[in-house]
Amino acid sequence: MSVVSAAVSALAVEDLSVELPRDGTTIRPVNGVSFTVERGRSLAIVGESGSGKSVTLRAILGLLPKGGRVTSGHVAVEGRTLKESRRNLGRGRDAHLSIVFQDPLAALNPVLTVGAQIAEAPRFVLGLTRRAARDRALELLRLVGIPDPVRRYDAYPHELSGGLRQRVMIAVALSSEPKVLLCDEPTTSLDVTIQAQVLALLSDLRRDEGLALVFVTHDLGVAAEVAEDLAVMYAGRLVETGPVSEVLSSPKHPYTFGLLESAIDVDTPDRIPLAIPGSLPDLSQLPKGCAFHPRCFLATPECTTTDVELRSVGEGRASACLHADQLTIGTRRS
Amino acid sequence: MTSGNVLNVEHVSVSFPAEHGRRLWAVDDVSLGLERGTVLGIVGESGSGKTTVARSITGQEVPSSGEIFLDGVPLDAHRSRSTNRAIQMVFQDPYASLNPRLTVRQVLRELLRIHHLVSRDDEEERCRELMRDVGLPPAALDGKPGQFSGGQRQRIAIARALAVEPQVLIADEPVSALDVSVQATILQLFHDLRERLSLSVIFISHNLAVVRHLSDRVAVMYLGKIVEEGEREQIFSDPRHPYTRSLLASVPRLHAASVAPPRLRGEPPSPVDRPSGCAFHPRCPRAEEICARESPALLEAGDGGHLAACHFRNEPPTDLEDS
C-alpha cells in the first residue's frame, strides 16, 4: 500500500470489490467496500443473507470460492499491503490474519487431534521446536478457557461440544499470533449461554492481547455486545458506519433504521416489531440507483437514479443515503 | 388435568438407547397443559428436550411413560387420521419441509381431499382463503416452493398446517432460519392467527425475545425437565430459577448495559450423565450442598400458577447471579 495514514491501522481495506460467477452471469457481492480497524478495536459488519459480509472476509483472506476474483481494492495489515496472490491461507498466516468460522466442525480437520492443529502454526510458521509448540498449544487451550487442556489436547474435534469446538477454532486462529482476527458469525450456531461466554472471550482477547477484531454477524445485539464500531452492509455495499452505540440509537440510513424497527427485543415485549417491506434484492438484478430504494420509506425519484456513496453525516459517522438528515430519533414508519 | 385445556401432557418421559447399554432421558417426567386459544412457549437450549416434547405430542416419538390427552381423550401410539389431522407442525426450515415439485395449490388440494374437508367445488375458494389467512396473494397458489423467499415459504408451510383445521399447531423454531428483517412478519402472522382463528399454539424456540413476544404462558426446559413455568410476565419479569435468570442475562442486548453480566459457567452436561440432585447445580451460581443431593420438584413460586424447580425459588437472587 503506497499511502499509509500517520497512525498505521491494524487492518485497512480500501475500495474492495469482488465478482463471482453465478448461473451464467457475474454478480458483484462486494462493491467498493472500505474500512479500517485499529489495534485493540473491534468492528462489526452487520447484514442479512446476501449482503456480502462473509464474502468481504473471504476476499480479505484470499479465500474466495472458485471463479471469484477481486476486481479492485487493496488490503493492508499493519501498513503492509497484501497482494491478492499471497493472500492464501498459508501466507495469510505470516500476514498476521486469522479467521474463525461459524461452523468449527467444518473448519477443523476431523482426523487430527485439536492439539496437533493448534501446534501446527507455532511449529511450522513460527518455527518453534516440537516441545515448545506443544507448550504453546496448551497455553492457547488455557487462554481460550478450555477446561483440562492436557486431556483435551489429544481429543478429536467430534469429541467436543459445539462451544468447546468454537474455542478450539479460536485457539487455532490465535496460534499464528495474528494481529487481526476475522470472525464470521462465530457464535451463530451456539446456544445463548455459550454464545455469551465466547463473546466475552473474544472481548478479553481484544483487550488483553491487543487484537483487532472484525466481526461479521446478522445479529444487531451481538454486534452491540462485541463491537465499538459498526458497519451496516446491504447488497454488497456499506450503507452506514459509525460508533456502534450511536448508530443503534440514531441510525442515519433507512436500512439500519428498518433493521432496528424489525428487531425483536426481549426487553420490550409490547413493542410491535415492524418488518422491512419487500425482500432482499437479487444480486444479479440490483435496482438502479440506491439498491435499497424499492424497500425504502424515504425514497424519492432521485434515489432511483443516483448512485450514492458513503459520506460523512457527523463526527465519525457516514451514511450512503440522500435523505440521512430526515431520520431522527423517534421516527417510526406508520 | 384442567378441563379448559385442548392438550395435556402428563408425566411424559422419552428415552433413547445410548452407548454402553445406558439410556438417554431426552424428556424426563414433563407435564404441560395448553389452554384453548392460547400460545404456550417452550424455551431451552440444544439438548433441553424441547423438540422431543413436540415430537411426542405429534406422535413421532413414543413416550417411555406418561400420557398425552387431546380434548381429554388419551392418545395412543397408533393414531387415527383424524388425530394426526388435529395436531399440526410447522418446522424451522420451510425449504426442507415442502415438496419442491408441487405447486402450492396441489399441496393444499391434496390435503383437503385426503381429509374430506370441502367439496370439490369449494376447493379453490378454500385455497384462496388459506392464502388470505397467511397473507399471500391468490397468485401464490400457482407457485412452487423454490420460487418463494424464506418468509413466504414459511407462510406456505403455515397455510398447509392450517388447511386441515388443526386443534393444535406446534411451531418448532419457525423464525430462526429467516432473515432478521422478515422474522417480524411471521411473528405478526402468528399473532393474527391466534386472534382470528383462536388457534392453540405450542411455540418452541431458543430465542427468548420471540417467545416473550408471542406466548401467553412459558415453560423453560433444561436437560429434559421443565425447570420453570408460568404466565409470560411471571417468567420474564420475576424469574425464580437461576437458569431462567442466566438465560435472560445471556441474550445480547442492542443497548448493552455498561457492566457485562457475569457469565454462566461451563456447558450443559450430556443427558446420559445427568448430574445428581438438581441437574443444573454444577453450573448454578446459587447452588448449595442440598442441590447436589436432592432433585427439586416443580413447585409453586410466588403468584398463582408460577412454578419453579429450585430449592431457593422463594428467595431473592444472590449477588453472584446474572439478574
Strand and helix map with partners:
The complex is a heterodimer of chains A (334) and B (323).
Chain A: E1 11-22, E2 25-37, E3 42-46, H1 53-61, E4 69-77, E5 80-82, H2 89-94, E6 97-100, H3 104-107, H4 114-124, H5 130-143, H6 149-152, H7 162-174, E7 180-184, H8 192-209, E8 212-217, H9 220-226, E9 229-234, E10 237-243, H10 244-249, H11 254-262, E11 311-312, E12 318-319
Parallel strand pairs in A: 3-8, 3-9, 6-7, 7-8
Antiparallel strand pairs in A: 1-2, 1-4, 4-5, 9-10, 10-12, 11-12
Helix pairs in contact in A: 4-5, 4-7, 5-7
Chain B: E1 5-17, E2 23-35, E3 39-43, H1 50-58, E4 65-70, E5 73-74, H2 81-86, E6 87-90, H3 104-114, H4 120-133, H5 150-163, E7 168-172, H6 180-197, E8 200-205, H7 208-214, E9 217-222, E10 225-231, H8 232-237, H9 242-250, H10 289-293, E11 299-300, E12 307-308
Parallel strand pairs in B: 3-8, 3-9, 6-7, 7-8
Antiparallel strand pairs in B: 1-2, 1-4, 4-5, 9-10, 10-12, 11-12
Q: Please, could you describe this protein's structure?
A:
The complex is a heterodimer of chains A (334) and B (323). Chain A is globular. In chain A, strands 6-7-8-3-9-10-12-11 form an eight-stranded mixed β-sheet, with helices on both faces. Chain A has a four-stranded antiparallel β-sheet with strand order 2-1-4-5. The longest helix of chain A has 18 residues, at 192-209. Chain A has helices at 53-61, 89-94, 104-107, 114-124, 130-143, 149-152, 162-174, 192-209, 220-226, 244-249, 254-262, and strands at 11-22, 25-37, 42-46, 69-77, 80-82, 97-100, 180-184, 212-217, 229-234, 237-243, 311-312, 318-319. Helices cover 30% and strands 22% of the residues of chain A. Chain A has two domains: 11-96 and 180-189 and 210-326, P-loop containing nucleotide triphosphate hydrolases (Rossmann fold), CATH 3.40.50; 99-177, no CATH class. Chain A is α/β, with parallel strands linked by helices and 334 residues long. Chain B has 323 residues and is of the alpha/beta class. Chain B has a single domain (34-47, 79-252, 262-308), classed as Rossmann fold. Helix content of chain B is 31%, strand content 22%. Chain B has ten helices and twelve strands. In chain B, the strands form two sheets. Chain B has an eight-stranded mixed β-sheet with strand order 6-7-8-3-9-10-12-11, with helices on both faces. Chain B has a four-stranded antiparallel β-sheet with strand order 2-1-4-5. In chain B, β11 and β12 form a beta hairpin. Chain B is globular and about 70 Å long. Chain B starts with a strand and ends in a 15-residue tail after the last strand. Chains A and B meet through α7, α8, α9, α10 and α11 of A and α6, α7 and α9 of B.
